[in-house]
Amino acid sequence: MRPFAIxxxxxxxxxxxxxxxxxxxxxxxxxxxxxxxxxxREPLPRPFDVGAFAGIxxxxxxxxxSDHPEEKSDVEQEMEARVxxxxxxxxxxxxxxxxxxxxxxxxxxxLGGDVSQERFGEPVGPVTCSFTADAxxxxxxxxxxxxxxxxxxxxxxxxxxxxxxxHLAAAPTCPMQMIRYGxxxxxxxxxxxxxxxVFETRIRLYRNNGYFPPDEADALIARCxxxxxxxxxxxxxxxxxxxxxx
Length: 246
Prior knowledge:
alpha/beta
């Protein structure tokens, strides 16, 4: 059985480990089914054959593709280059892929899309999303409630639908919440692996990273705990179930 590749771009150990555990839990994956790659620590194997994996999941992180190069640390630039290096093959091969937040920026950037901090950044916390008409025939989205809550928190966003993509979910605060390229390449602006506990960890770790005023941390944690977020984890579980069998 081919493993799922989990690519992570969080340089903080606690955040990275917490995200990895959440992907396993919400994806209903066993650790024996995955290959974990922390891109802050080492490059990907060369060559990196996307066909060697049942699917590829790219998690979130504090970096932004739209930041000026001089604003990015060496580690951020290395992680960005390592993710973008695999995207052409993912796109050409239509390889099973799920980009989560940062992973959406990677897909849109590789497709020549507009990723910027001009509009549609969202503060940390829950938002209400809606599936589009295209989602009704998508194998991951079909049959799920038409509106749902999801956890977000990002400075940059995809400004318009990249060429060749299907638009699957939107929110009033940020239109591009979920897209698909081809049949198998997915990306979400929201975090499908997250629950309130996961976001509490991130709020505490990133409280001084400019996502929100630091003195609002406790209120944001309370908002997350009050949210009912069930559809995004189901999307992650469906992605795993669909491609585990391939």
